[in-house]
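Collaboration report, partner site 2.

Our partner group contributed sequences for two proteins of shared interest, and the home lab folded both. The records are reproduced in the order in which they were received, starting with the first partner submission.
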Amino acid sequence: MNLNKENKIVDLTKISKKYPEMWVALSQTSHVAKGVGKTLREAVKKAEANGEKDGIFFKVPPKNTAYVF
């Protein structure tokens, strides 16, 4: 879970389960996946194509792996 600008908890569980081992671009305001790809470059291109210029990018770890965001 992450904290957004308003200090609210953002649950990334569904996104992490849906996109294991992928780069994900989240919208800064709605925290919705705007771009996903096997590489960061691919996720950036897809996010820009969806109108997201300043997304939050992270790589989702493999399934069944312990991690902290």
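Second partner submission, folded after the first:
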Amino acid sequence: MRKFAVFVLLGALSLPLSALSAGDWVGYVTYTPKPVPTAVAMDAAGLKWLKDTASRLGPDGFTFLGRRDADHWIAFNTKGGTWVLQVHDEGAKFNFRGLVSPKTGKLTVEKGVQWEGLGRQADANKSATLALEYAAKARAAKDLFSSEPMTATVGTMSSAKPETKMPPMEKKMAPSEPKKAVPASEGKPVSMKPKTPVPAKQAEPAKKEMAASPMEEPAAPAPAMAATAMTTPKMMPPQGPASAAELPWKRLLEGNKRFVSGKVTHPDQSMARIEEISKEQKPFAIVLACSDSPAPPEVVFDQGLGDLVVIRTAGEVATDVELGSIEYAVDHLGVAYLVVMGHRDCSIVDETLKGGDLPANIEAVAAQIRPAVEGARFLKGDLLDNTVRENTRNVVKKIKDTPALALAISEGRLNVKAAYYDTMTGKVSELP
């Protein structure tokens, strides 16, 4: 009778009960308010990795350890000092939520999968083992998610090493970049990004994600809307910092040096300048920057009226509106240089890292930044600062992948530079 009720809940009345055999997937099961402790434990390297992640998140923090879309993700949070590991893989029909002991790495299962012929404890053990396989692959930056139902069998319950191969997940990596796995003996995240910038030869296919997860947890998952994939025309190689194409960048850096040294000149800030630009404006650069108050481009570059086209959004995110503004400046004002400037301690990036429920409009901004969180997770160093830099690179890539702007770049009508503003020193530098 219990089996029949389960099938009713799953909408699977068309399947005969006799079709099930030992080990077959039956459905999802929730153990709360009496979660099931297990002897399944994360290995030493994995536990150190989670400790490092928890130290960056702080109390009541949330982050994705891996995410393809709203139906395929692995998340980690530190609510109330308790570690919570969650996995949702719709393709493999696997849902999991469990508590991880910060001292022992042992899992206590709150939600998992029920298999035919296994009891409550065995089901929990198997769910915990599979969850640790996902975590181990996330730590090693390996492929996570499958489009096929789960067929894994129960392995050694005390092991966190993967015994089941999961088919590939799309990664946000450069097309020519080789995969790099983390040795089992290492717990530190490693960089999955090249140290030098990669020319934008071809944009990666992007997918629109759904807005909510069937698990209804965590509350933070939301879509990251990506630019439409296209082939970017080949960009002309730069002729060096002294070339005519780089003169706007040189002019901006000279202004920033004046700002840092306290020798600002406040150029083009007179009534005569107002009269001049009322007739015709000829800005020499576009700056897409964050709307945070410590990062005003005209001030940090010591520029004046009519010198810059300034576009400011939280986290310098670029939606269709900002991309249209850039395109207008290029096509109608003849501006041939664009700087995308991120900055230290960006508040909206920090808010995105913390996770949790956000108001709808703020969530729309955070959704644009989340891909950078995933990319920065495997880089050594400060997670916030790495995410700021990664987000700036992502915005540059999105601009280069926009058809009209990609055409302008290929024709030599537009150059794009990623920059980083240190709000502690006032210095602006090129972002590799």
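Feedback sent to the partner group on the second submission included the following. The CA atoms of residues 108 and 218 lie 18 Å apart. Residues 1-20, 147-214, 219-242 have pLDDT under 50 and may be disordered.
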